[in-house]
Please model this.
Amino acid sequence: MINRRQFAIGAASLGLGTALASRFALAKPSQPSTGVAFDMPEGACDCHVHIHGPRAAYPMYEKRSYTPEEATPSELEAMMKALGLGRVVIVTPSVYGANNASTMFGMMHFGPAARGVAVIDAETTQRELKEMAAMGIRGVRLNLSVGGVNDPDRAKRMIDTALEQISNLDWHLQLNTKPEMIEALHDFLGSLPKMIVFDHYGGAQPDGKSEPAGFGSMVDLVASGKAYAKISIKGGHRDDLSVFDPLADKLIAANSDRILWGSNWPHPNAKPPAGGTAMDLTPLFAVDDGRVINQLGVWAENPAMRQKILVDNPARLYGFA
Model:
């Protein structure tokens, strides 16, 4: 059975009404204000979102580096309906440590239309992993960036440990890292027995002038078929989304069968408020996800390409029927 570390949904549901009532007076995750400029294919999937469940039911990790506002499954559902999205992949954020209960809470809301990516640690048992697999978890995430892991040797040890834990499962390994780390780990990652998925353009932050250092290593792994890349933008509102155009073009040209799209809803701000601490509430970024997904129409002008990125590739990786 799933223990209290992984899934406290029974206890959570007992106080859900009160928790949700108080929640709506606080956080307000953004909703799209721009309509989608292309025909959304049936079964389109947002491959990178987070659920921040009611804090009374889903307490956050005591060693977290920031404290985001709440963001509920019903609010996510409203965003998805506004954009015409039919499927979703919920990723456990760093603020919960290795407790995936809030992610499971979100997945239960969407049923077969949802899959998940979990965070695990040394205390995660094989029984828990199998139970999570049965509920729709399809990968584990190592958040090297938020964890401040900049040593390639340390990263290798963490990756080896995670892969050993999931060796009996048909899961992938998702990495939140930086292009320089991907470059340092290129040969190692290319030799791994599991599929790799890179978050948020592999952490690349384009300046509109030159390609980020190390970006080519991720492109090479995508081209070889050893990795997927999420063309998902993080960091809040941007006046100019076109700075990502060269990166998206290069990744799609390298291997369009290994490209995923994600919104990063509810757009958490991973930095504590000015003068505050990690325990202080940090407002979510206000982002127009309609505008964000319309940029995909620039990166993938052909409907067949959008079908591949939004439907076919997620269905293959995450096992949607």
In short: The CA atoms of residues 178 and 203 lie 5 Å apart. Residues 303-318 form the longest helix (16 residues). The chain has a mean pLDDT of 91.
